[in-house]
Specification:
This protein is mainly β. It folds into two domains: 34-164, Beta Barrel (Lipocalin), CATH 2.40.128; 172-307, Lipocalin (Beta Barrel). It has two helices and 18 strands. It has helices at residues 2-26, 210-213; strands at residues 34-41, 47-57, 65-78, 83-95, 100-107, 120-128, 133-138, 143-144, 149-150, 159-164, 172-180, 185-193, 198-209, 223-236, 246-254, 263-271, 276-281, 301-307. An eight-stranded antiparallel barrel has the order 1-2-3-4-5-6-7-10. It has an eight-stranded antiparallel barrel with strand order 11-12-13-14-15-16-17-18. A two-stranded antiparallel ribbon has the order 8-9. The relative contact order is 0.15. The model has no long low-confidence stretch (mean pLDDT 86).
Length: 308
């Protein structure tokens, strides 16, 4: 009788453990899930942008498929000052077991994504760091999802990265590198901010090719370096995940930024729990509405920077 009681007790323990494991499996979460801020650029043209997107994968599919949630934003900036904003309304995600897959994003606007007249975009994606980061580039198929929806990646090329949304405050100095497409311009900035929405200091170094200077007296093959000291500025962040799509501007002394202007405006996202900022130049001709300060960011750049 005593042996029977021991056996029954052991079976009860095993049953409890099995129930716990089943409950744990039922509540498993997908790594690639939630809200992501992203930035992108076109290697062929002076086009770049930022945005955020929400993803919801289905654990019942072993996190291999899911949907793109409505409510995201895709902001696209073009060298000629064109700025396009599209709201994400729908989409889908499909992943292989190795984290490679596709993401389809559908928007709705009269001008289309980046003014291309097309409201869908299909991306080839690679989910890394357990879902904390996603690398992507545009898929060149003519139609999204192998269906009948024309997609922007067929007529333009995009590449970039998305990271888990961070909605907290940022503070400190970020070392950032920036580059442009189709224009001989690269550089790096140290941008210092506080938690109250102010840019407090830093510097920007820029290297340009002679063909960008547009000066007939410049010798062939020459290049130029500019060093600008950041004196002041400000930034704004939205609420919750929309804090990952902010606006930052600053004014400099010494050399003008890349020889263009003493003012610069950036659209940016916050990544890696506040350790990183990613984004693009805001190509509005002026840094603030109703202002006369020319914006050096009109060249349309992309950038990424890490907290010191």
């Amino acid at each position: 009788m005593a042996k029977l009681k021991v056996f029954l007790a052991a079976m009860a323990v095993v049953g409890t453990m099995a129930s716990a494991n089943l409950a744990k499996a039922a509540t498993a979460k997908c790594g690639f899930n939630g809200d992501y801020s992203f930035f992108f650029w076109d290697p062929e043209a002076p086009v770049s942008g930022v945005g955020f997107v929400g993803v919801k994968l289905d654990p019942k599919t072993k996190c291999r498929s899911g949907i793109v949630l409505p409510g995201g934003i895709l902001n696209c900036n073009i060298f000629d000052g064109g700025i396009y904003e599209d709201f994400i309304e729908d989409g889908s995600v499909f992943l292989e077991s190795d984290g490679e897959g596709t993401m389809e994003i559908e928007t709705n606007s009269s001008r289309g994504i980046c003014g291309l007249g097309v409201n869908a975009l299909e991306l080839d994606i690679s989910v890394v760091l357990g879902g904390k980061s996603v690398l992507f580039n545009s898929d060149g198929e003519e139609f999204a999802g192998s269906g009948l929806i024309p997609q922007a990646g067929y007529v333009a090329t995009f590449t970039g990265r998305a990271d888990k949304c961070f909605a907290g405050q940022i503070s400190g100095c970020y070392d950032a590198r920036f580059w442009t497409s189709d224009i001989p311009l690269v550089g790096d900035c140290t941008i210092c901010v506080n938690g109250a929405g102010a840019v407090t200091g830093g510097s920007c170094r820029c290297h340009t090719g002679a063909e960008f200077v547009l000066n007939e007296s410049v010798p062939s093959g020459a290049s130029f370096e500019y060093l600008s000291e950041i004196e002041a500025g400000g930034y704004t962040l939205g609420e919750n995940c929309q804090s990952s799509t902010g606006y930052l501007w600053f004014v400099t002394s010494s050399d003008e930024i890349c020889g263009l202007s003493s003012f610069m405006a950036l659209d940016f996202g916050v990544a890696q729990q506040g350790k990183e900022i990613i984004g693009a130049c805001d190509t509005s001709p002026f840094i603030l509405n109703n202002s006369s300060e020319l914006n050096a960011g009109i060249v349309s750049c992309a950038f990424e920077g890490w907290l010191q």
